[in-house]
Amino acid sequence: MRFLHTSDWHLGRAFHRVNMLEAQAAFVGHLVATVREREADAVVVSGDVYDRAVPPLAAVELFDDVLHRLAALGVPTVMISGNHDSARRLGVGAGLIGRAGIHLRTEPAACGTPVVLRDAHGDVAFYGLPYLEPALVKDEFGVARPSHEAVLAAAMERVRADLAGRAPGTRSVVLAHAFVTGGEASDSERDITVGGVAAVPAGVFDGVDYAALGHLHGSQAISERVRYSGSPLPYSFSEAAHRKSMWLVDLDAAGTVTAERVDCPVPRPLARIRGPLEDLLADPDLARHEDSWVEATLTDAVRPADPMARLAARFPHTLSLVFAPERAPDDPDVSYARRLAGRSDEQIARDFVAHVRGAGPDTHEQAVLRDAFDAVRADDAGREREAAR
What stretch of H or E contains 95? Predict the structure, then answer.
């Protein structure tokens, strides 16, 4: 069985102020061409098809186009909803669409019911685990305390139970949208931390031949059998070093995995440049970035005049300008944003308690803070779900 593993299309998303719809359409064309030319037997899309619960019309039209093109090829496609998608909206018409070979898996309760495809060696069961927001699915899976690990483990128990009842030799693929331990994140993924923990161990997927993951935007292999395809396009400058690609996976008769990266077309390379403005304008080594999308970090002690206009004269696709004057760490003028960089909301709250009281929160208080942040996230997710109905 040969299948193409992709995820995190984020249809409708912009890159800074650049509309990415044309680039997303180019990716869709590349995807369809790859399926045809590499003779893929199936396509799996591991969530975040759209960038938000209520996507713009142009994004919906592009999604409709790719569904028709894949259906016309006669290649079965399995898709799950991600944390950016509205599961309810994405799943509308799933029963009818399934007759065309496009299988939308958006209901947590159905995670143990696979799409079964056949090849010359027998059955391959594709299990779709949509993004599982712990606070919203804890009752469905009967977990005492909602956490990503608990609900994913419960979902995988259903997968393994179904697989155990199938014919010997049935191979298995799981689609999931989660942050798995060992994965490398970027700035463009939405935080899914619950209970102070975002990641789940890769061992939760033991017992299946391949776990096709979505959520993280960098293509990476947690193990031979557990992989992220990454997003096909960049959505933040933290992805400047990414190689945007999909996985072309071959699953042999014994369930052995062979995976090949298939590069995706990217409209422009990304570049992060740093230094005093005059140096950036004069450095001949930066000529290679003159046609790139650029994030420039200026280290001048005093903010220069008209920096964006001057940068754009050499780097016409400059999209982001950051001021980071080089100062000693104890300089009182070090910006508040720099002090908070890389810290979670919960860590910032703990630091604030320590600042005003002289001592940080104790164990009980930390639990109260954690529960408060989890409740806010669950409330936000619930409101977004309601708005998408």
Answer: helix 94-98
